[in-house]
Design brief:
This protein has about 160 residues and is mainly beta. It contains one helix and eight strands. It is globular, with a radius of gyration of 15 Å.
Length: about 160
């Protein structure tokens, strides 16, 4: 099932080019009664400026404990610049995935494409509610996918 979801996601990733305008597209896959996966396709604007979902629709996440965050950068002409950054921030601007998107991997072969966010004292990350994605240093018209996988929790 995970491979099937990834194939669909990557097909959308490569077929949804929108040159010129920065964009963030999202999808959700409720894999089972206990797990959930959110995927976000992030495209840099033609000027390479900061991308933020706060200028569009905010992202609402069901209650979950984050298990991992994966980054799948595009390849070729739309590969993100080296050391781009992706943040999932709350209304106060705090990065809720504990900076695991800082210096996100530029290549698909990077050993750190999958990262596990934890609090400063080693605790689990709990998400619920409305958030915004912000990306910096992507480069003009470049793309990456951020996938957040977690275990559903009760409210």
């Amino acid at each position: 099932m995970k491979k099937f979801f990834l194939v669909i996601l990557l097909t959308l990733f490569f077929s949804s080019y929108s040159f010129g305008a920065a964009s963030i597209e999202s999808s959700v896959s409720k894999k089972s009664n206990s797990m959930v996966t959110y995927a976000f396709i992030i495209t840099g604007g033609s000027d390479g400026a900061v991308i933020t979902s706060s200028t569009g629709n905010p992202i609402t996440l069901d209650p979950m404990v984050v298990m991992n965050v994966d980054f799948i950068p595009d390849i070729g002409d739309t590969q993100p610049s080296d050391e781009y950054n992706v943040y999932l921030v709350d209304a106060a601007g705090k990065d809720k995935i504990m900076n695991v998107g800082v210096d996100a991997p530029q290549a698909r072969t990077d050993k750190d494409n999958t990262r596990t966010p934890v609090t400063t004292d080693g605790g689990l990350i709990y998400l619920k509610g409305t958030y915004y994605i912000t990306a910096t240093d992507m480069g003009a018209d470049n793309k990456t996918v951020m996938i957040i996988t977690g275990r559903k929790t009760t409210e």
